[in-house]
Amino acid sequence: MRIVDIQVGELSLPLAHPFKTALRTVERLEDIVVRVVGEDGSTGYGEAPPTAVITGDTKGSILCAIQDFIKPAIVGMDLDDLPAVMEKLNGCMVHNTTPKAAVDMALYDLWAKSQGKPLYQLLGNAKTSFETDITISVNPTEEMVRDSLEAVERGFHTLKVKVGKEGTADVDRMAAIRQAVGPGVKLRVDANQGWTAQQSVTIIKAMEDKGLDIELVEQPVPALDVDGLKLVTSQVDTPILADEAVFSPRDAANIIATHAADYINIKLMKTGGIWNALKICEMAKQNGVKCMIGCMLESQVSVAAAAHLCAGQEVITMADLDGPSLCATPPMPGGPRFEEAVISMTSDPGVGLRDIPCDNWH
Question: Is the pTM of this model over 0.85?
Fold first, then answer.
């Protein structure tokens, strides 16, 4: 099938609560949506959230990348030769992983539709449902305890707690949450690069000494401090998850080779889409490294694509795909079902979403 057009639009959705991390505070989701059109009129969809503090991509840069570089490079190509299209997409410009991801997932959506199958079945068909955690934003401790209890009441069994702004005070914060939710709830800690390597060791060991039973700590140190990440991993018992330190397959190879982290968090907006994410999955599988599938502050459009990757790949054993759960709007029709903690795949071809609330396609 020949690719005849790539269109963009804007998606604006309110969040149920402000999203707060050590890096930013967001009250509304404002993303770019991509529509790839095939010669038979069929369409595939993708999404690009501007996350300048992590990927460096802004709304303006995303639109420019798609319209001025990606679109001219791949329109007219035959989607039946998917590897050639993906190589062209990834080679048309360096970096700009978010716009590449949006177009990549739209291409995979359209490609799977042309095969008449759900995307996850073409990506490995490992599972038909799985559970996601939900994010607890960084706030005063009392508010975080309240939000944690509310999440458990909604049926979430795993909480990813944002910390990293107050150093050792985060130990007391996690202790309060653990006491409130009890021993049956899994707690993940995400410092969003907020600590130094030595702070990380001190804080994580303090959590271990208190018996807080933390499942993992995500990206405790700045992304470029791989030596610091390796130090933390070697000094603590709690598993360490590399997030911002891993964008490309090359990054993943370095983390694995140096044992700088125990797990790898794959996010399509960092990898540039499913194509490169699959390369990381294969590398992790060969080396016995478990992966998490995560998301930025994204809507159901791109989180659904990530869900298909998770369902396709056995090596992805953990999910942080709570974007739709954080929005204050009802779910979009079609595609994976997001029912609080449980994400279930359907038989819809491609990624499966329909009636995306996006205006001003051009």
Answer: yes
Per the residue annotation, which of 162, 186, 230, 270 is the catalytic one? Answer: 162
Beta strand 263-267 with 240-242 is parallel
Q: Taking the domains of the chain in order of start, what are their residue ranges?
A: 3-116, 121-344
CATH no. for 121-344? 3.20.20.120
Active-site option among 20, 186, 230, 267: 267
Antiparallel, parallel or unpaired: β 3-20 and 25-38: antiparallel
Q: Is 186 a catalytic residue?
A: no
24 and 2 Cβ atoms separated by less than 8 Å: no
How far, in Å, CA of 206 to CA of 189, rounded? 13
CATH number for the region 3-116 comes to 3.30.390.10
113 in active site? no
Run means of pLDDT, 10 residues per run, the chain, 362 residues: 97 89 85 97 97 94 98 98 98 98 98 98 98 94 97 97 90 98 98 95 98 98 98 98 98 98 98 98 98 95 98 98 89 94 98 88 92
- Residues 144-154: b if buried by 16+ CB within 10 A, e if exposed: bbebbeebbee
